[in-house]
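During the first year of the project, the team set up a workflow for recording each protein of interest as an amino acid sequence followed immediately by a discrete structure-token representation. This format lets reviewers and collaborators read both layers of information side by side without switching files. As required by the reporting guidelines, we include two representative entries from the current panel. The first entry is reproduced here exactly as it appears in our internal archive.
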Amino acid sequence: MEQLRFEFPAGQPATGRVLVGVVGSGDLEVVVEPGQGGKTTVEVTTSINGYGRVWDAQLSRVFAAEPRASMQIRIHDFGATPGVVGMRLAEAFEALGGPQQGDGA
């Protein structure tokens, strides 16, 4: 198991909490909670060692697209592909009531 941590600039705290996905063969679980204004932290626990650069690239794409609300995100991964990572994060943002942009929209 490898544990990774990433930080990204963000706006105001997210408006709620959400859990999407399941930890199982080829999937992952995403837990999102409001963060501290100004940053989003992402903590990844993955069963695949040595993929820190892949996680960094995937998450950088997600958080560079637009300003997002401040969140604390925990990801528990069991070998998910980058496509599944993107899908689960999009699902979590939608469950929070939208893209969770920095302006709280």
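The second entry, processed by the same pipeline in the following quarter, appears below.
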Amino acid sequence: MSNGAVQNIRGVVGETLMEAAVDHQIAGIAATCGGCCACATCHVIVSPDWYDRVGPPGPMENDTLYFGAARRPTSRLSCQIDLTTALNGLQVTVAT
């Protein structure tokens, strides 16, 4: 959460992390563009322990992060992270 509190949520395999965050009303995830990779209002910082499993941003996401967010080395847009069983336990911080 953006206030530093830890919150565990459950997502569904096949949905995005952004969708799960919106479903659980996670503070700081506005998802203004609805998952179109255009606004960076779902920007999260992936825990370094998880970044290799999540992977780096693609070209469009990279551009959106460059122009619309206070980017960090493990920044991702949660709308571009598809939930899989391999990501069970994923840890992220909402970017502020």
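For the second entry, the following points were noted during internal review. Strands lie at 43-46, 75-77, 92-94. The radius of gyration is 12 Å. Both points are flagged for discussion at the upcoming steering committee meeting.
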